[in-house]
Every structure is written in structure tokens, then in C-alpha cells.
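Long-time lurker. I teach an intro course on protein structure, and each term I like to show students one example going from raw sequence to a predicted 3D structure in C-alpha cell notation. This year I'd like something fresh instead of my usual example. Would anyone be willing to generate the C-alpha cells for the chain below so I can use it in lecture? Attribution to the forum is fine with me.
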Amino acid sequence: MVGDGIFGKHFIKFLNDNKQTSLMASDLISEVKRDVMNHSKLEPEGRAIDDTGDEYGEFFFFLKKNVLAEQNENDFKQIQSTIHSKKGNLDDRLTQCDEFLVKYKGTWNSLSKTDAKAIKSRHSKVLKFKEDLLYEKQLNDVDINKYLSQGDKALGQGKYEIAKNHYDKILKKRPGDPFAKEKIKKCQSAAYDKKAAIELYKEKKFDEANIYLEKLVELSPFDSELNMMITKIKKHKWHELVKKGNQFFNGNRYRDAIDTYREALNLFLPDSKEFKELNDRGFNSASITRRINICNERLVLIDLKDNLKLKTYLEFIKKYPNSLEIGELKEQLKSKDKNLPSENYWEQIRKNKKGYWEKHFENNHIMVWVPGINGWVDKYEVSNRQWENFLNKTNRKISKAPLGNMQNYIHNYPEYPAMVTFKGAGDYCKKHGLELLSKKHWMTAAVKDIGFKYPWGNDKPYAGGKIRANSESFNDGFAYTAPAAEFDMYASPYGLVNMAGNAAEWIQENLLKGGGFLSEAEALQVTNEEKVGKDDVGGFRCVKYDYKSKSEKKNE
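-- Reply from a regular --
Happy to contribute to a lecture. Here you go:
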């Protein structure tokens, strides 16, 4: 009987499928053998295997080899050897376990029962290896952190041999640890550098010693011996730099002196004990700072004398108010520029857009220095706010005006020009130590000596579609007066605003100049003037004359 084994089944199948009446024995065996190999996990081996239908050895088979199972077994043996021999560091062993577990996880699902069982068993053993390694790592990390902390502390104090011993203990726990090896290398190098620095220091070769010390103190900031040597070297350098700086100072080489003194001051932190104790024959940190300020003053002074102007002079006295040179500079400046105001007004002034000096006076007067008349002239017409302050101080009543309710006009429009009588304008000026402009000086303030028809030039107020002033002849956006600071783009050559239009202005001769918001364009020309009665009202601006002789006043 053929039997019920694999061979028997394929033999019968072959006979049923073959239609030939006769077959060679060799053909029969080779065909059945091939079919068995293609449909079973068996291959010819040269010996009899159970359950193949060839128990008597006439037709030999053996189990097929599984490559994955064989590789799994080899990898496991390698891990087992590494774990037992403790080769490599702990992290490398953990990595080896992790790679094995990832590689073979779930692979047993496609294998025979025998191979699957073997791989599952090895997988469980590797998991146990990993668990043991993690516990060992936890213990090692505690020790390593302790050794690292102790080593770093000793390194910071300059105790290099002690630090090296602690780092060596890390290497025993983690053979080949690159971090520990680098620390040990630093300890060995630092120990050599410190020995060299001490020898150079003893030989008073401070510059050479300092090269080593500056590098060492970064590594060991708490080494008292290093810090002592560094402090003494810095003090020695301080004395040398102060001496050199004094030589530059006495030789009028102020820039070199400043650089040298600053180099000395930068040797120590400003708040340090050493900085406060510095002293070199009376030259401590405070005196060196004063020397630097003197050098800066003299450098500015040199430049100032070469280009002496009011602006640079004011900047100088503001920065160096105690300079012994101020009086001499002032006299040189006054003799150089005859158009300057007197020294009482040399502070807190600035230049306006036209390039002329302007300054704030009491009662919020902003006035411009007009060299042509040697006086300060209001930049804007006196406003309702300024006029109301005057009324309150003097208990005056509000005058009548062609604008309706003057009281409402003053209260509701504080930045608009005050509309007052000739007497009111004069009283206001007198109260504040000011004056009304004379006719001649009003003309100078309006157009300088250029000869313009209007303060801004010769174009009519509305030429070219531009609105240059507040008058009746064109639509300027204001039914009556406009704010005193309006139309500043069309100021006079000195920067005085609304010298034409808005409010006609009182002058000393009891005339109104410049035209107002009801005037035709021609009436705004600077040559125009208007004679009025004592009860008529107009605007006004004030002048504060400066160092003017009586003879000059009489000739106006």
C-alpha cells in the first residue's frame, strides 16, 4: 500500500492525472518528488522522515529551513553573549535590545508552530534583558550624577586631581563615555596651565602669566589662588596705565589719555571692592573719571574755538557749566557776531524753520530774534488766552467789539487773536515789560530788507489756487478770524506768522498794519496802513528790545 502520507497522496494524484498507458520508473519518481517539494515543507535529505510516506527510506525527505527563524536565533545568541559578558556601555546594550525587539515583533505569525514558539520565547528573554538593563541604568545614573556634581565642583575650585578622580568613576560605570573623557582631558590641561602660570607669576612675567590665568579663571572661577594672582596683576597694570595716561594728559594728547584712562577703569567692575580701593598717588577711580571729563572738555573746546557759534557755545556751557573757559568764549562770540541777543537770552533758545532763534517768555510768548531791529518779536499775534490772563490779573472789563459777544469770543476761542483797542494793546505790553512795534520795525519784521509786497513774497494771497492768508477776497475756510498759528507755511522771512491777514495789528503810531479777515487782497500788502478811531479794535504782537541805546530809539 502506498499509505496516507504526503508521498502517497501525490503518487495517486499523479497516476490519476497522467493518461499514458505506461511510465518509466525514473519518470514516476522524479515527477512525484517535484510535486511533493512544491506542496510541502519537506525536502529530500538522504534519510527517512516520519509522515512522508517514505518511512522505509526508499524516498528521502527533510524539513525546509526558515531563514527568518535562523537569523532570529543568531541575533539572540549575540545579544545573550553581550549581556553576559557586559561588553560595551550600558546604553549600547539597551539599544541592541530595542533593535531586536522592533525587528522581530509579530514575525512569528507567519511561521510554523515550532519556529513561532522559539521566536516568542527569545522575544520574552530579550524583554527581560532590557528590564534588567534599565534598572541598572537607573542605579548608574544616580551615581554618575553624583560623580559629575562632585567633579564639577572640584574643577570650579581649581582642584584638578580631585575632579579627575570623580570623572574616572563615571568611566567605570560608562566605559568610553565621551563627556567624562573630555572632562578628564580638561583637568589634565588645566593642571599643566596652572603650574606654568604660578611659575611665571613668581618671575613677575605678568603678561605671560595672565594669558594662562584668563583661560583658567573661565574654567575655575572659584579658585582663590587664581583670583588672587589676577587681582594683583590687574593692580600692577592699573598703576602702569595711570602713569601712561598722565603722560598723555600733560602732553595735551587728550584722546590718547582718554583711551588709556578708560582701559585702566575697565580692569575692574565698577561696584567691586577692588575698584573702590584703587589708588595711585591720589589717583583713584573718581579722580581718573574727572580727568576723562577734563579731556573731553578740552577736545570739545579745541573744536569750538575753530568753529565758534552760538549753538555750539550753548551746547558747551550746558555740558560743562563749570568750565574756566566760558567767560573767554562768550567775549569771543560777542565780538564775532554782532547780531546775537544779549547774554540774558542765551539759554533755552532754538532755531525756527527760517533759521532764526526763538525762545519762550512769560505768559506763553514765543518770540523770534530779529537782528534787523535788535529785538525779540512775537511769533504769533497775542491770543485770547494771553489776553484773558491779563484781564484777570488787572481786573479789567472786556471791551466792545464788532464780532458780537466779545466775552464768548474770548472764552470759546482761546487760540484765536485777541481783538482789542489801541490803549488795551499798549497796556498789555506795558504790564509785561514789552512794547508795540514801531512802523519801521513792523515793516522790517514783515519782509526783512527784501522788499516783498507780502510777508511770503509777491504772489497775491490766493494766486495759483493757494490760500496764504485769512482775508475777505477768497474762501479761506474761516468766517471771521483764524487761530493765531494758522497759515504758518506763509510766515515772514524771520518766521513770524500772520503778519498779513487774520487780525490787522496795532503799531506804536496808532495805526493798523497788515490787513485783517475783512480786508481785500491789496490791503494785506505790507505798505498798507489803516487809520482808525480810539474805540476801534485790532490784533497786536509785542516786541522786547535788547541792549538798545536811547539814541537808537530816537532815530526810529
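Some talking points for your students: The chain has 19 helices and eleven strands. Residues 307-337 form one domain.
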